[in-house]
Automatic annotation (TrEMBL):
<keyword id="KW-0804">Transcription</keyword>
<keyword id="KW-0731">Sigma factor</keyword>
<dbReference type="InterPro" id="IPR039425">
    <property type="entry name" value="RNA_pol_sigma-70-like"/>
</dbReference>
<dbReference type="InterPro" id="IPR007627">
    <property type="entry name" value="RNA_pol_sigma70_r2"/>
</dbReference>
<feature type="domain" description="RNA polymerase sigma-70 region 2">
    <location>
        <begin position="27"/>
        <end position="92"/>
    </location>
</feature>
<dbReference type="InterPro" id="IPR013325">
    <property type="entry name" value="RNA_pol_sigma_r2"/>
</dbReference>
<dbReference type="Pfam" id="PF04542">
    <property type="entry name" value="Sigma70_r2"/>
</dbReference>
<keyword id="KW-0805">Transcription regulation</keyword>
<protein>
    <recommendedName>
        <fullName>RNA polymerase sigma-70 region 2 domain-containing protein</fullName>
    </recommendedName>
</protein>
Length: 100
């Protein structure tokens, strides 16, 4: 059983400072949740895994913007939703072009 996750404000502050163990802890805590969420919409384990990878990449790349007062789970979910929307929009456009 995993240890309970630290408070979001502490983790956000640590990640913002480049602390890899804190980032790893967030990854291990939320990966499965985000994967299941992405899989519901993308219907592909490969695409869902890629989406989750991109979510955590964006978290790390934009760590300077992390707010201590926000929920990490909510923030990650927002990034995931945005990514899924982009993937589905792109797929819809590609499908429309193939039908022309």
């Amino acid at each position: 059983m995993k240890e309970p996750i630290m408070q979001d404000d502490i983790l956000a502050s640590s990640i913002r400072n480049g602390d890899i163990p804190s980032f790893t802890r967030v990854y291990e805590t939320y990966h499965a949740y985000l994967f299941r969420f992405a899989l519901r919409f993308l219907k592909s384990t490969e695409h869902a895994e890629e989406a989750v990878h991109d979510v955590f990449l964006k978290l790390w790349e934009n760590r300077d913007c992390l707010n201590n007062e926000c929920s990490l789970k909510g923030y990650l979910l927002k990034i995931c939703k945005s990514h899924i929307f982009q993937v589905l929009t792109r797929a819809g456009k590609e499908q429309a072009m193939l039908q022309v």
